[in-house]
Amino acid sequence: MDQRELENAQFEIPGREVPVLGIGDDRPGQGLFQVERYSCRQDLFQNTHKNFSDPFTSLYNPATSTRKRAPSGTSQAKTNRPKLSSKMHLMVFIKIILKCLETDDPDPSVRLNAKRVIAECTKKNREGHPDYTPLEEAIERRLRFAVDDCHWNRAQTLMDHYIMMHSLKQPSGKPFKNKQPNFAQV
C-alpha cells in the first residue's frame, strides 16, 4: 500500500465510516467534511445492550459487572474528599447529572429515562422494597446503568469540583479570599 492509499484509508467506527483525508488532497469537495455530532450514549447503548429486551428493568448483578475495581490495598480519591451528608450528596449529584444530560446529550430520551429511574427508585423505596432500602445506593446503581460512563464521569468530576468549592467556603457562605491570614493582628 503506498502513502496515498494510507492517507485515504477509512477507519471503522461502530456503524459508521469516517474518511481520513490527507492535507494535500486537491480533489474538489474533499477538502472539507462535516463531522456529525452524536453522543457517546448512542454508541454505548448500541454496543452494550444488544441482547437485552429492556436493560433498565434488569437487576443489577455485581458479579457480571465489567467495571474494573481498584485493589483493596490502594487508596482511592474518595478518601480525600470532604464529607457531605448522603442525602445532600445525592440531591446535588442528581441535579448535576440531569444538567449534564440536558446540555450535552441532544437526545431528550436519556434525560427522561434518568428521571424515570429516579422516580421509580424513590417510589419503591417508599413502598419498602428491600432492594431499594438504601435509597442513595439504589439510585446510584440504577442511574449509573441508565446513563453512560461519559456522562457519569463528567458529573462525578463536576461533583468533586462542587465539593471542593463547598469545603473552601466560610461559615457565612462566602468563599475565602486568596490572602494569607495576618496572625500578628490576632
Automatic annotation (TrEMBL):
It comes from Cyclotella atomus. This is Uncharacterized protein. It comes from the Eukaryota. Residues 56-65 have a biased composition (Polar residues). Residues 56-82 are annotated as: Disordered. The lineage of its organism: Eukaryota, Sar, Stramenopiles, Ochrophyta, Bacillariophyta.
